[in-house]
Amino acid sequence: MIILEEKMPGVPPPPPYSPGRDAAPPPFPHNSRATPVLGTLPSHLLLRIVYLTFTNGSSLEKQRKTLYWLTVSLRLVNRAFYVACMHVLRSTYIPSYASLVHPPYTSDPFPLQSSALYTAPKPADAPIQIRSLQRETQVLDLFIALKVREDVWLDETELHLERDESFRDLFDLNQPRARTEDLVRVYGMREGLISADGRRPTNGPSGSRSRQKTVPFDALSVTFSSRRLGLVLTTRERKRTVVEVQRTKDESLEAGAKRLVREMKLWLSGA
Known about the structure:
This protein has helices at 43-51, 60-72, 79-99, 135-156, 164-190, 253-269; strands at 117-118, 131-132, 194-195, 215-216, 220-224, 228-234, 239-246. The protein is of the alpha+beta class. The chain has a domain at 100-269. The strands form 3 sheets. The chain has a 3-stranded antiparallel sheet with strand order 5-6-7. It has a two-stranded antiparallel sheet with strand order 1-2. α3 packs across α4 (135-156). Residues 8-31 are annotated as: Disordered.
């Protein structure tokens, strides 16, 4: 047997090791993602966490204290917690709110056919503030803030007397006025008289009526009483009542809002 021995080409030896002080580490792959925090969780997970603050089998008194904590503490942490907490609070208290609305007044804090949230234009580095386009939602939020406090105080002591006048002010004035403003926005946008893009109106010459085709909803408000309705236009220079109509005490809010829009159309046309 003949064994043929072939010389393989030699492999060069590794370079000599010389540790350097300024040598950079090798480019190992690394994860550059930011460390997740609770406020950056997806909204459905954050909402689930908020719901879990209500322990199973807890007493009504404990649940009311948790709702109070959501109102005065947790929702103020950041935007994500605010949205999650308000979802829980509004869904909890809206039946009680609706039961206190005076007939024949109507209520619709969360319309399905309009934008739920409106973010006013701000600089890029400014904090984001959520404001509901539906003005009755603000009345509901005031009711929640008042109701959670009154409930907890009633649980703490039997000597606390619930202040009925606070709720009376909300449902005698704030709720029907805000609902009328929302109806004016709906009817006014339908007629092409009102816009909801957040732009402010500009005044024309002194003593002349505005000739603009649309008025931003942010500039409008309603004065409400048992006998009279007024539409107020606010500009940088002044605030003035541009339309005023009569109403009866038991008149529906829809009828009064439609009359305001009709008079507003005449005012804009210069009639």
